[in-house]
Write a structure and sequence with these properties.
Layout: H1 4-12, H2 29-37, H3 40-54, E1 59-69, H4 98-111, E2 115-120, H5 130-142, E3 146-150, H6 156-165, E4 169-171, H7 190-202, E5 206-208, E6 211-213, H8 219-230, E7 238-243, H9 260-273, E8 278-281, H10 290-298, E9 303-305, H11 318-328, E10 331-332, H12 340-351
Parallel strand pairs: 1-2, 1-9, 1-10, 2-3, 3-4, 4-5, 6-7, 7-8, 8-9
This protein binds S-adenosylmethionine, 6-(5-methyl-2-OXO-imidazolidin-4-yl)-hexanoic acid and iron/sulfur cluster (SF4).
Iron/sulfur cluster is lined by residues 73, 75, 77, 80, 82-83, 121, 152.
């Protein structure tokens, strides 16, 4: 019989080679709900303890976003200003020229980003779009940035093409629980999202998948979303947790304020369920004060979007983020801080269901 004390015992035990921490893929809803129900201090302590067993607690991975094709999207995602079904004030733009994308990537690199994420408001890329996006991947990669794309649904062939061009990550979010999903999106099914993620994984790319908090979902929906991600046979390497950006003209523009502690709890539970993944404090930072962001980092968030814009909405200024990092003693994680070899090893161990020894970071070696 599960009780929350069991989780405490497992996760607060200090890592040692004789006591390997397992990556689990068989979480029950009751277990996840019990984590959410922990007293806040216990939850954050547990999340931070787990975090230190896998990562340097003072390093945060930095990604910059660029909308390479904006607006007029045929999908009806209720939160999204880019959907043609809503009335957000947004001028649609065609697919950007490859060299313009490259120029933006160079600026992002100069400002300190290590990953460049390119997003397109598509149901899926068309055959005639592929050569352009593949060229973007090659050129951005060639300047020494990690590459990520989010272009909507992919078939197996498209996933293979992107992987061959060198795309490191593909972002496709589940957004919420399977139960709440039909209230948010009707033009794409949950299963289609899972299929796209399977194609991405099978093609050998790293998976970036997460969701949005603050759309009117219940606690059970938040647990349901995290359960979907954590019970994948391989955890997504990157888990973006977005706080809803309430954009005028979208059906969710009048959603009530989210209780900040509920968001922080979601980050903490994601960290505990997927200890070796990067958990990204994603959209919504513009509406968070510094203290809330600091608590998110304490709860195990170790990635952010960096740069004045997300896709179509504002993000904190780079100056502001640099000041925050300075105040907190946080430094940017460099690509080679976490090697591809250890990533491959994690994935191999997960695939073959072997116990996972914490590969990244031994908390006992810090001062
Ligand atoms: N069109 C592609 C797709 O949906 O797969 C890629 C871009 S889409 C904007 C990427 C993700 O951004 C969405 O799945 C959603 O999780 C997030 N997002 C979009 N609008 C948002 C908003 N207003 N607030 C928070 N997150 C949002
Ligand atoms: C993700 O999870 N969040 C990013 C990225 N993946 C593509 C997008 C956030 C978009 C916020 C609303 C906007 O700027 O349009
Ligand atoms: Fe289109 Fe993506 Fe926005 Fe949905 S989230 S409307 S698919 S751009």
């Amino acid at each position: 019989m599960f009780n929350s004390a069991n989780i405490m015992t497992i996760s607060t035990t200090k890592f040692s080679p004789d006591n390997p921490l397992m990556l689990r893929h068989n979480w029950s809803k009751a277990e996840v709900l019990s984590l959410f129900a922990l007293p806040f201090n216990d939850l954050i302590f547990q999340a931070q303890t787990v975090h230190r067993q896998y990562f340097d607690p003072n390093q945060v991975q930095i990604s910059t976003l660029l909308s390479i094709k904006t607006g007029a999207c045929p999908e009806d995602c209720k939160y999204c200003p880019q959907s043609a079904h809503h009335n957000a004030e947004l001028a649609p733009e065609r697919l950007m020229q490859v060299d313009d994308v490259l120029a933006k990537a160079k600026m992002a690199k100069q400002q300190g980003a290590t990953r460049f994420c390119m997003g397109a408001a598509w149901k899926n890329p068309r055959v005639k779009d592929m050569p352009y996006v593949l060229e973007m991947v090659r050129k951005v990669k060639a300047i020494g940035l990690e590459t990520c794309m989010t272009l909507g649904r992919l078939d197996e062939d498209q996933a293979g093409q992107l992987a061959s061009a060198g795309l490191d990550y593909y972002n496709h979010n589940l957004d919420t629980s399977p139960e709440f999903y039909p209230q948010i999106i009707t033009t794409r099914t949950y299963q289609q999202r899972l299929d796209t993620l399977d194609h991405v994984r099978s093609a050998g790319m790293k998976v970036c998948a997460g969701g949005i908090i603050g759309m009117g979902e219940t606690l059970s929906d938040r647990a349901g979303l995290l359960l979907q991600l954590a019970n994948m046979s391989v955890h997504p390497e990157s888990v973006p947790v977005n706080m809803l950006v309430r954009v005028a003209g979208t059906p969710l523009q009048k959603m009530e304020d989210l209780e900040p502690f509920d968001f922080i709890r979601t980050i903490a539970v994601a960290r505990i369920l997927m200890p070796a993944s990067h958990v990204r404090l994603s959209a919504g930072r513009q509406d968070m004060n510094e203290q809330m962001q600091a608590l998110c980092f304490l709860a195990g968030a170790n990635s952010i979007f960096y740069g004045e814009r997300l896709l179509t909405t504002d993000n904190p200024s780079t100056t502001h983020d640099q000041e925050l990092f300075h105040k907190l003693g946080i430094v940017s994680e460099q690509c080679d801080d976490i090697s591809d070899e250890s990533h491959t090893e994690i994935i191999d161990q997960a695939l073959y269901n072997e116990p996972l020894v914490a590969l990244y970071y031994d908390a006992s070696t810090t001062q």
